[in-house]
Amino acid sequence: MTRARMPLYAFLVLLFVGFLAPLVWALSGSFKPRGEIFGYPPELVPDPFTLANYRTLLTGQPFGRWFLMSTVVAVVATLVSVFVCALAGYAFAKFRFAGRRLLFNVMFSSLSIPFAVILVPLFVILVKTGLGSPWFALIVPWVAPAFGIFMMQQYIVQSVPDSVLEAARIDGASEFGIFRAIVLPLLRPSLGALGVWQFLQSYNSFLWPLVLVSDSSQYTLPLGLQTLFVSEQRQYDLVLAGAVLAVLPAVALFVLLRKQLLEGLSTGAVKG
Predict the structure, then answer these.
(1) Which of 146, 169, 170, 251 is the most buried (most CB within 10 A)?
(2) Distances from the Cα of 268 to the Cαs of 82, 181, 188, in angstroms?
(3) CATH topology of domain 59-270
(4) pLDDT in tens, the chain (272 residues)
(5) Rounded-to-integer distance, Cα 219 and Cα 203, Å
């Protein structure tokens, strides 16, 4: 470690501690009785240690239903979104058609529009067309995100040679066959990065389910935990236990796709 880089390393360590501290506090608090969570001085090691928060959450609250709703919606939305974004990115990167540049610019410009701006119009459209079922409507905003299409387009431009596509066409392969057999395998790192990002976006979504879902039996995990927080007793113990359990799918997904995620973020996905 050189002396010149010591301030940088010190800053990175402080940044790491700043990100890690809330997670450690939440994990510690999930094993404490409610009255001990905000004790002073704060103690990282629970004393007394209890699993009552988890038992109460799993047996006294519909946590399993919230968890299933969020996980299923996020998995379906991720699979559909990754495929659609890869297909659209491939079209923008390798095909020349009328209005391509205008369509791409409109799509890219939509990145600057906050989701809250289109939330109400999107809700009205879904309700008026009879497509307001939560199992369907919760997935709609994540099907073709502009960021995902742009990410795929950039990666394909950098990583898929035109010569390979031309050779496949000469051999008689169909366009969709080329996309399925050649393009998709080359996109694995970028698809992994997009999959992790898309899963987290859908899984952690709060505002859209809050507007869309009125039946408590169809609450997603963020909505369910929010009901515990706004209750009369403010059940912080259950909220912390739920938050710890809620983060497990995201951690598992990152562990499974960490190689693709790191490769996708360090190659074509970040090149202009």
Answers:
(1) 146
(2) 16, 20, 12
(3) MetI-like fold (1.10.3720)
(4) 567 778 888 888 899 888 888 888 888 888 988 888 887 777 788 878 889 999 999 998 999 999 999 999 999 999 999 999 999 999 999 988 888 899 999 988 988 888 888 888 888 988 888 887 888 889 988 888 999 999 899 889 888 888 889 998 888 888 889 998 889 888 888 888 888 889 999 999 999 999 888 888 889 999 999 888 876 677 888 999 999 999 998 888 888 877 776 766 665 444 44
(5) 12
Q: pTM of the full predicted structure?
A: 0.84
Structure tokens at 215: 């039946």
**CA within 13 Å, CB half, 116:** 2
Beta carbons of 189 and 264 less than 8 angstroms apart: yes
Amino acid at 26: A
